[in-house]
Amino acid sequence: MKAAFIDRDGVINKEVGYLHRIEDFEYTHNCVEGLKALVDCGFALIVVTNQAGIATGLYSVNDFEKLMSWMTADLARYGIKFKDILFCPHHPDGIVEEYTAKCKFRKPLPGMFF
Predict the structure, then answer these.
(1) Rounded to an integer, what distance in angstroms lies between the CA atom of residue 31 and that of residue 91?
(2) Which domains are present in the chain?
(3) Pairwise CA distance, residues 50 & 90, whole Å
(4) With helix as H, strand as E and coil as C, how does 20-40 read?
(5) Does 1 have pLDDT greater than 90?
(6) Is the pLDDT of residue 87 over 90?
């Protein structure tokens, strides 16, 4: 299987800083066309994204999951489906104890890719 690992912020959606609300979501230029081209070439799409806003208390895992559910449903209208969505909610400077950690999954470390 061929796979394309794709970051979310700045690649799929325009960078707005700690995106977690649907009303703030906007696709980057030609994103839909690019994802569709990858699918048409036989690539499985996998999102890999750091989500430090969870560790810093700006939004919750539930907020992230709600946004991602909306995004995946929206892109499915174009025949774009994701094999998986991987995220790291950790940050060493977080304030939410459960997610305050130095983590092997946080990019640029390769944990999510393994």
Answers:
(1) 28
(2) 2-113 (3.40.50.1000)
(3) 8
(4) CCHHHCCECCCHHHHHHHHHH
(5) no
(6) yes
